[in-house]
Amino acid sequence: MKNRKDTLKTALTLQHQGTTLLHRINPKFFPVTTFFALVSAVTPYVTVYFSAKLLQELSLDRRPDVLLGWAMAAVLCTGVFILLKAFLNQRYETYYEDLYGRKEVLFSHKMFHLDYADIDNQEVQGLRSKIRQNENWSSWGLMRTPEHYQQGLTSLFGILSGITLTVSLFTSPVPETSGWLTILNHPVFILVLVSCILLVSLLAGHLAGKAVAIWSNMAENATFSNRLFSYFGEFGEKGKRSEDVRLYNQQNLVQYYTKALSDINFGVSGPMAKLARSSMGVYSATGTALTALLTGCIYVFTCLKAWGGAFDVGSITQYVGAVTALAANIFSLVQLIGQLKANAPYLEQTFTFLDLPNSIYQGSLTTEKRSDRKYEVEFQDVSFRYPGASNWSLRHVSLKFTIGSRLAIVGENGSGKTTFIKLLCRLYDPQEGHILLNGIDIRKYKYDDYMDIFSVVFQDFQLLAQPLGANVAGAGTYDKKRVEKALLDAGFKERLASMPKGLDTPLYKDFAENGVEVSGGEAQKIAIARALYKDAPFIILDEPTAALDPVAEAEIYARFNEISGDRTAIYISHRLSSCKFCDEIVVFHDGQIVEKGTHEELLALEHGKYAQLWNAQAQYYTET
């Protein structure tokens, strides 16, 4: 993108694409904006026109009845336009804020529907982060398109209105009796003056556009500075860090960085301030100076023609105001071209993200809905490594699940246990080998159908700041009896009884003052209840008891067979004492399955990996 020349055609195409996308979100916004731009462009000319007519009557005939008529018309028309402009501006601002919020739904919807493999991809996350940072820094990206749309229409309407009121400035001749001033009637002189107005307006707008482009090129430095500044500037508001901040006087370090960042990046000696004092400031100041010089020339030309008798003093007001506004609108339109080009790379980033395809093949076969839960899964020589990684996370893994059995997966950190589960749930597809469901490659099944046969509690599960029942059911409406049973099976009975509103009790205080804060262990029980409520044929628990105390853990495991019912249960654990009740234990090491068997069979392998892990933890067990 950096090496691509952003042509005006590309910028206009992206602008149109952004406008079309936002129009679908709120169809009312752009029609209101169009009308607002028209009224905003015409209003100054209405004032200029009536001011000229009033001055003309005052300087010439001074007829009271005519003067009163013009005054009443001026008040009425100007008042109507000002009120209409104020009303439309209010609607524009309201719809713009609404659009700003609705726009976030686009990105949220995209993130919800991207494959997990893409969500987990650092490049995708980095792209989304860049889009957000550029928008927060200087509104670059999608939300610049409404501003550019409004600015472009206002400029075009303003130019058309200005031409209407300006034509007679050049066509009104100076009388032949005015001596040397008759030179102002010469076509060449008029052509030169019109050319100067156009060229100066174009040049001033171009310089202003270059200043915007320079400011835009500061994006990488500015967004990174904002990230650092936000991190350190809001450090004191992060309640979870309060203990460390006070114990280790971290506020001193944070304040040091905050001041350093302010001085280096945003202070008078920072790169942005230097640009403002050099090229960016020069371009902007030169453009403004040229506009002021042009205004002076227009005043001189208009006054000379009036002096020569081409028109009255009232017309001076009309022509000076109209030509000045015309030049300003040409300036604004040319400046907009620079802004469109500057915004093009940011829009391109946005559409690159929104157009990301789903990389996982969706499949077409419907997963059979079996009441007997007879789903058989088999790994056939499966190997996998994460995108961009050189080492294999899993290598030549073959395993067949016994339907309705209890399977424990153990191994040291980084041995491939969680990766195995992610492949089983088809969050990733393997690079080698096949995973079969009832003898058919899982890639041939409809993606959503296949996901429906799994209930999983991951280590990093998330609960929402919503009522307890909705968290368990994952829906706003649900079967309360089933939710209560799931919570009881997960060992949440006593805590449920203490909830002030039962299943309607909101969790956390994000949106409810009476929200209940749950401990890590309680949250884990709710997550287990959520997996039980889904009632899928496979239930998978990834470190399900990590946050539970030993008593609660013993309670969960004591009831695990009853809880699982006829499901095929798979769980990952570091606490090997909990594996004894399982039908089979699979031991992972360096991405491979190195041992399989029951607890007794694996312990019998004195030099085996399972026995090694068991003996390392044996001092914590009380065997029965």
Walk me through the structure:
60% of the residues lie in helices and 9% in strands. The protein starts with 7 loop residues before the first helix and ends in a 7-residue tail after the last helix. 32% of the residues are buried. It has 624 residues and is α/β, with parallel strands linked by helices. The chain has 23 helices and ten strands. The radius of gyration is 36 Å and the shape is elongated. The chain has a six-stranded mixed sheet with strand order 6-7-8-3-9-10, with helices on both faces. Strand 9 and strand 10 form a beta hairpin.
Radius of gyration: 36 Å
Strand content: 5-15%
Give, in spatial order, the strands making up the sheet with the most strands: 6-7-8-3-9-10
Overall form:
elongated
Largest sheet: 6 strands, mixed
Uncertain residue segments? 1-5
By DSSP (H or I, 4+ residues per run), the number of helices equals: 23
Structural class: alpha/beta
Average pLDDT, all residues:
84
List how many beta strands DSSP finds: 10
In helices, the fraction of residues equals: 55-70%
Distance separating the two termini: 66 Å
Distinctive features:
six-stranded mixed sheet; disordered N terminus; single chain; alpha/beta; 23 helices; 624 residues
Concise synopsis of the structure shown:
The chain has 624 residues and is of the alpha/beta class. 60% of the residues lie in helices and 9% in strands. The longest helix is centred in the first third of the chain and has 50 residues, at 64-113.
